[in-house]
Amino acid sequence: MKTLRYGLFSLFAIILFLIGSPAFAGHGAASGPPTAVIEGGDTINVSGIVLDSHKEPINEANVTISVNGKEMEHVVTAHNGKYVARFQMEKGDVEKSTIEIKAYKASFKAATYTVHGSDLAQHGDHLYISEDMSLDRHLGPAFWISTVVFILAYVLIAFELLHRTVAAMLGAVIMLVISYTIGTINPEFHIFSFESAIFSIDMNVVFLLMGMMIIVGVLKHTGVFQYCAYVSYKMAKGNVFVLAVYLMLFTAFSSAFLDNVTTMLLLTGVAIEISISLGINPLHMLIPLVLASNVGGTATLIGDPPNIMIGSYAGLTFMHFVEALALICLVCMVALILFSKLVWGKGYAAGKVEDVEEYIRVLKEKYKITDPRLLTYGMAVLGFVIFLFLSHGYWHMEVSVAALMGGAVLLTIAILTEKVDLIELIEKDIEWPTLMFFIFLFIMVGAVETSGLLAVIADWILNLSAGNFVIACSLILWVSAIMSAFVDNIPFTATMLPIVGYLSTVIPGAENTLWWALALGACLGGNGTIIGASANVVTMGIAESRGYKISFIGFMKVAFPYMIITILVSHAWLLIFRPQ
């Protein structure tokens, strides 16, 4: 009950944050108190967008408008970088005035734009200024503090000095406290606001996980995972390594058409049941499966979020991804099979059964479908959810909506038929520590993104490449891979999009190849560490809740070498074949 209370309290707090957050209240810019109304005066309307050097919008930038040195209005940009200000002046004073617009924010150099009143566009008593402004990065105290806190949080996670959820929470809170204490005294120390912190949380991921955890939790009561373990073992005819290969191939294929997190939520229970029945360590089965899920998700437009972002930005279709990446992903899967044999071969051999036919009969008797009716309902709901996943682009609907709908419907059916205990499911089947870890990790990554760490890395790639295709391709691939192993690949990909877009146009022969370098690096790089991809965190979180824990270093020892292998293979592939 204690876990349930903590979980419900956390969820309730998140919802309250979102409802009360100005970040979700709309897209208009915040402004100061309205100026006094001047009868018969001229109204000056000032608007524009504040951008960074990558032409990305800057939120929460301060914009002040002064007339002849006197501040008339102060506004703050919205999340789309827009600002809107309005003030009044005495009739006829505008033409004799000099209007100054200044934009500034911590970690950026201030920029000022000056216009003479006689140059304003006019319509009736309204005068208009529309000015977009660009701010260059400035590596001040906010940058260094957020970077150091971010690294220290990862050290705590890597060496297991604290539980990863607590470490991420501590890092996020320290950044916020510094922003609101020292940052209030000196704005250069202001890393980001509470509203920006909440806005950086990808609730699509959080609610997707929650919805699928509920669906899997209900299906678990039907015995379907145990039955799948029996069928899989029967197909492999007692050969544990062949069984692992079947599961890896199925996982990779499923992840290409579902997101890899959903695939692992569905298959983790199966893998654990198979391993337990064979008497082998479930981690020897789960780690290859989660690696396979990240490889499979790389092959298509919808398999991994970075691919969706790249496809949308570059105008690449589903078939573009398949034609360019499917074959290299297949090569990576062959490498994974050989790698698994080398690393976990002895573990698989330990699960060998002498009398296979007899063991199959035992499994058939032991692992039966316990509730066919609930399973029928569950598979129907799951099938509809998968259909919505595959067609979400047509409906313009986030995948989390489909997952929550499926979870709500299936949970309602299970409760009405008295098949599932609601309290038990919420307490045991929803991995609250995993969800909270994602929330605080998103906040930390949002902080270093706001303060400029990701932009610095992107600029470094741009400057170092110097228009050379081989250097640009190599840097994009390897930096994306290493970064994605340690930070969330979604904000990093977002930062890299305009850089890769620019390089693709100025480097002869690059065309789409640099996009594939970014996709391969961002997706395959997630295999490097236990926190490199959402699927890794979810799978290992479920395994830990079942009593099978692996440390950050333990996972990295086996997964990071395979990640390096796949990036080396991808590197050679890109340079030799240059897929377009």
Helix and strand arrangement:
Layout: H1 2-20, E1 30-31, E2 42-52, E3 62-67, E4 70-76, E5 82-89, E6 98-104, E7 111-116, E8 121-123, E9 126-130, E10 133-135, H2 141-158, H3 164-180, H4 182-185, H5 194-199, H6 203-219, H7 224-236, H8 240-257, H9 260-278, H10 283-298, H11 305-314, H12 318-349, H13 356-366, H14 372-390, H15 392-395, H16 399-416, H17 422-428, H18 432-451, H19 453-465, H20 469-486, H21 489-506, H22 513-524, H23 534-545, H24 552-577
Task: Explain how this protein is built.
This protein is 63% helix and 10% strand. The chain is an alpha+beta fold. The protein has 3 domains: 30-135, Sandwich (Protocatechuate 3,4-Dioxygenase, subunit A), CATH 2.60.130; 203-432, no CATH class; 435-577, no CATH class. The strands form 2 sheets. The chain has a 5-stranded antiparallel β-sheet with strand order 1-4-3-6-7, with no helix packed on it. Helix 7 (224-236) crosses helix 8. It is elongated, with a radius of gyration of 27 Å. The termini are far apart.
